[in-house]
Amino acid sequence: MPNSELMPIGVFAQRSGLTSSALRFYADSGLLPPAEVDPVTGYRHYGADQLARATTLRRLREIAMPLAAVEAVLGAGAEEAARLLDEHLARIEGDAAAARRKAAVIRAALGGDVPGLLIAALKGPVLADAVEQVLTATAHEPGMAVLAGLHVEANDEAIALTATDRYRLSTRTLVPARPAERTWAGTVDGGDLRAAVADVRRSALVRVEAVPHGIRLRMSGREDRHCRILPEEFPDHRLMLASLDEVTTRATVPKDLLLRALEEHPGEHVALHVTEHGVGVRPPDDEHPGIPLPATVTGEDLRIRFGVTTLYPAVSTAIGPDVMLDLRGHDRPVTIRSADRGDLTTLAMPIGFDHSA
What we know:
- The chain is of the alpha+beta class.
- It has 3 domains: about 5-75, Multidrug-efflux Transporter Regulator, Chain: A, Domain 2 (Orthogonal Bundle); about 115-235, DNA Polymerase III, Chain A, domain 2, CATH 3.10.150; about 245-350, Roll (DNA Polymerase III, Chain A, domain 2).
- Helices cover about 35% and strands about 30% of the residues.
- The chain contains 10 helices and 20 strands.
- The chain has helices at about 10-15, 20-30, 50-60, 65-75, 80-110, 125-135, 190-200, 235-240, 255-265, 310-315; strands at about 5-10, 35, 45, 115-125, 150-155, 160-165, 170-175, 185-190, 205-210, 215-220, 225-230, 250-255, 270-275, 280, 290-295, 295-300, 300-305, 320-325, 335-340, 345-350.
- The protein has a 9-stranded antiparallel sheet with strand order 8-5-6-7-20-19-18-12-16. Strands 4-9-10-11 form a 4-stranded antiparallel sheet.
- Helix 9 (about 255-265) runs antiparallel to helix 10 (about 310-315).
- The protein is flat, with a radius of gyration of 27 Å.
C-alpha cells in the first residue's frame, strides 16, 4: 500500500476514536493489526479502509462485549453479526435484572428492613395493566431521564400514574384497596417497574410503600421488588391539563376500526378528517377521503394531522371498544380516552399544518 494512503497511529487513533494504547492492544491481540510496521523504527501505520472495522470494534467494546465475541462479530456476515449482538444484549439485560434483584436484597439488609410508608394497596393485575398502559408514553432521551419514568401521586382517595414523552401524556387513576397513609409523590424508574410487572400481575394484592430513594412493592409469597426514584423534576402536567382549551369537536370511534386503519396507513404521518358523517383516515396532503370510519361526531368539522407513532399507542392503550377524541383545533392537544371508562386518559400532540376544513 502506498505510504500516501497510510496514516500514523496517532492520526488513526483520532479518526477512529480509539486511543493509541488501545490500538496497540488490539494489534497484539490480532483484532486490528496495522497495515504496515516500519521495520527500522517499529512505527505502526493504518489504512483508511481499516477505519470502519476500528469504529465497529470501538462500539462493540463500549457495550462491554468480550474480545472473543468481538472477534466473532467482526468475522461474521451481517445476519450472523446481528444474532451475536442480540445474544450479547440479552445477556447484559439479564445480568442487569439479576443485579437489581440482588441490590434490593442488599438494600433491605443494610437498612434493617426499614418500614415503608404505605402509598396504596392495589390488586396486582390492575396495577400491572395500569403501569404497562401508562409507560407507553415514556421515552429515553439523553439528559432527560425523567421522561423514562412514571410519576406517582397518592392521597387518601386515589393513586394517579402519569408519564410523558413530550408528544404524549398518559395518566390513569386507580382507587386502592387501602389508601395512602399520607400524601406522596415521586417519579419512579420505568425500567425497574417494567422488570417487576410479571410478579405484580401474578399477585392478588400488592402493597406499594415509599422507602428511602425508591418505592417497594410487597407481594405475598414473592420477593419484594424495589424501584428507584428519579431525582429530576417531572414536567408540570397539572398545569398543562388545567390550561387546555375548550373542546370544539368530539368524535367517538370504534377502537378496533381506527387501529386497523392506522395499521394499513402507508406513511409516517396521518390525517383525520372529522365531519358530521364520520372520521376519515387519509394521507396528510391528499384530498382523497381515505378510509371512512363510522363515528358519532358533535361540533365543528376538522382536519388534523398526527405522527402515527404518537397516535397509534394513544389509541391502542384506551380501555374498552370505543375511543373518544376530544379535539380543540388542528394544532391543539387532543384528549384520547375510553368512551365509557375515563380512568385512562392520553393527550396527543398533533402536527399543526392546516385549518378547519
